[in-house]
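User: Assemble these into one structure.

Assistant: Restating your components, then the assembled model:
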Amino acid sequence: MIKPTCEDTFLIKKRDLKNNYFSMVFKTYSRVDQCQPGHFVHVHIPSTDIFFRRAMSVAGVLVESGEIEVIFKVVGRGTRLLSMLHPGDRVNFLGPLGVSFKLPKKSEKAIMVAGGVGFPPLFYMATEMVRRGYDPKNIEFFYGGRSVSDILERTRIKKLGVTFHPVTEDGSYGEKGLVTGPVERYIKSGDKAKMRLYGCGPDGMLRAVNELGLRLGVPGQLSLEAPMPCGVGICLGCVVPLVKGGYARVCQDGPVFEIGEVAL
Amino acid sequence: MTPNLKVSIAGVEFATPIMTASGCCGYGEELAAIFPMSKLGALVTKSVTLNPREGHPPPRTAETASGMLNAIGLANVGVDRFITEKIPFLEKQKTKVIVNVAGSKLEEYVEVCSRLNDIERVDMIELNISCPNVNEGGMEFGSDPAMTEKSVAAVKKVFSRPLIAKLSPNVTSITTIAQAAQQGGADAFSVINSLVGTSIDTDTWRPRLTNNKGGLTGPAIKPVALAMVNAVYEKCSLPIIGIGGIATAEDVVEFMLCGATAVQVGTSLFVRPDAPVIIADGLKEYLRKKKLSSACELIGKVRKY
């Protein structure tokens, strides 16, 4: 089990990715070397407007310089406040938290399905796999959004050398339609026994990826999102129902769950 | 000279007056990964009931101004698993252990407390007769003086160590309930549990909690809690553990001046899981500045107009 720490950090780089998406790089976080793809940090933004921390999935780390990147979309007061920070501003990080992705075997195909703001943990995973010497050709990066402005960091994805499959609902970039269509086609065309499916995105997309994995017999994992007051498993506020009955905590038992484990 | 943070309640000594509040620390395992439990005066566990409870469907929590609403629904592993799975961990922790007990029937409270009486690691029981988030039992035991006295007296017969009655603010007169609990044989009070509240999503017109209502906690309720601690302090003779929005050392000082002997930190743990450590350090610093040798010198010393 990773020992999370609670410590101050400061923003060093901020990029407006347009359409309410932001990338932020924070500095001097001592546990950066313990971060794995799928982990998240719980960020406290000093303000009287919000009370709780906000969970941010990690989009990447630079261990040598102690830097950590988060990418998020402004959806409410917390993310709005976060987006208004300037380089030099301090926040408090609690983390790294949660269960990370299990990487596939090097001989297996990793089929990543990202939807909208579900992009960061899968981008981190693809980056980490390439860094660890996985063949980028074994990473199929499917990325769906409503339109071209929802498909973030296209240059960075392409730079990894992975096979990039952008899909937009309005057809403004990549294939037109829902991301799960081409994913299904791809799975059916290959050796399912050597595939692992990974998903992160909106509820509807996660349900569809979960269903695909179960129906086509491809194991894998999904990363879930939930509002979480504590982030460390003590408040029981972020639970999701399990297929076998009962609830699991997204923050501590997840956010990464096996396909077929959660009643989505 | 280093100020002394030790306090004593019903013969039990605590290294500091800072405890965790029930429902905000699980059974201690997660927090122990963040700071040593020896830094706490006591760990107050999540409510334990006779049978395991899954709790309410999500969403169970909502953020409010300076606080939160929750309706977890007393999700817990049940007393049997608590004894077999959680006590071994708690045995190893160098802090006092207070087990919060809840139930939907009087017999359930008695049965759980009777089983816990055999577990030496349980230093005290905190009787949750005030949970607003369950349909049966909970608050109804603590909103009627006769029922309060009866519940406390019944548990006192089967649990030989000190018993704390956790009081609800959702009553006409908290002092009447406190007096009834004292009459029933309680050894101390926890004041207060959460206030009943709700929150509505203006897009969907639905409550933000599936239970429709929940318990309001956090700094938002601190002034209510302080007034109630002081009211109980003035009317009753038992020691009080103050609860309600404690986030800083100054908050602890306020509660102790109003009559609390110790305090429990709850919702603040969600914002800073190491809050009890920071608060205890801050309290020491405060006592040093005020040239006080012991935290006990603060108890009930509010200078009223």
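The radius of gyration of chain A is 18 Å.
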